[in-house]
Amino acid sequence: MPAAVAVIAVAALWLAVTTLGAIDPLYLPNPLDVVGRMVTQAETGVALRYLAPTLAAALLGAAIAVAVALPLGVVVTHSRLLASIVEPVVAISQTVPLVALAPLLVLWIGYGTVPIAVLCAIVAFFPMVTTTIVGFRSLDMRVVENALLDGANSWQRLIHIEGPMAAPAVLAGVRGGVVLAMTGAVVGELVMGGAGLGTLLTLTREAADTAGMFAVVAWISLSAMVLYGFIQMLERAAVTRLQGEST
After folding, report:
1. How far apart (Å, rounded) are the C-alpha atoms in residues 67 and 231?
2. CA–CA separation, 49 and 54 (whole Å)
3. Residue 2 and residue 9: Cα distance in Å, rounded?
4. Rounded mean pLDDT of 24-34?
C-alpha cells in the first residue's frame, strides 16, 4: 500500500505539472500522452516486435550467467586457493563500464544477439556469483558437521545439505541478475545496434520524440518488473521444494 500511494502521488504531481504547462513537453511529456503512445505501440505490434529481441538476449545472457556463476561460486567456497584468485578478479571486472566492453565484444564476436547476450551475462554474473558465495559461506556448520559424522560424502552434502540451505541466497542473486540482464540488453543495443528496445529508444531520441522515449523506458521497466515477479515465484517454489517446506 505505501508503494502504491507513492506511485499515485508521483503520477498525480507529474500530471499536474505537465497539464499546467510548468515544464515544456520536450523535456517532460504529459503522462497521458506516454500511456497513449504505449497503447498505440501495443495495438500496432511495435512493442512486441522490439521487445522480443531484447527479452531473448536478456534471457540468453542470464542463462549463460547462471551456468557459469553458480558452479564457480560453489567451487570458490570449497577452495581457499581458488577463492583468493577468483574473488579479486570478479571484483575488478565490475569496474569496467559496459559501454567500454560493448565495442570489444563487437570486435571479438561480431554483431547480433550473441554479443548482446554475452554483455547481459557479464552484467548478471556478479550478483549471481556473489550471492552464491555468501549463501554457502553462511551455512550452519553444525548441520554440515552432523552430515560428515553420518558419513555423507561431498556430493551428498552439496545436494542434500548445503544446496538447499544456500538456496534462498543463490536464487535471490539469480533474480537480481535476470533483471540486470535487461539493462545489459538495452545498453548493448544502444551501443552495438540490434532490433530491440534499445534501438527503438535510439530512434525516438533522434526524432526528439520525448513521449516515445518515455514509452520505451516504461516498456523496459514493465518487462523487468514482470521478469522479477516471475523469477520470484519460481524462487519461492524452488526454496519450498528444496527445503521441504509446505506452502
Report:
1. 16
2. 10
3. 10
4. 90
Dist CA 98 CA 229 (whole Å):
26
pTM: 0.85
- Structural domain spans, the chain: 49-240
The topology under which CATH files domain 49-240 is MetI-like fold (1.10.3720)
pLDDT reading at 37 higher than 90: yes
Burial call 73-92: b when 16+ CB within 10 Å, e when fewer: bbebbeeeeeeeebeeebee
In the chain, the amino acid numbered 29 is: P
Q: Judge whether 58 and 178 are in contact, CB under 8 Å.
A: yes
Residues 190-230 have pLDDT tens digits of: 888 888 999 999 999 999 899 999 999 999 999 998 988 88
Burial code of 15-47, b = ≥16 C-beta within 10 A, e = fewer? Answer: eeebeeeeeeeeebbbbebbeebbeebeeeebb
Mean pLDDT along residues 134-139? 88
**Percent of the chain surpassing pLDDT 70:** 98
The DSSP secondary-structure symbol of 186 reads H
Spatial distance between the Cα atoms of 82 and 59, rounded to a whole number of angstroms: 29
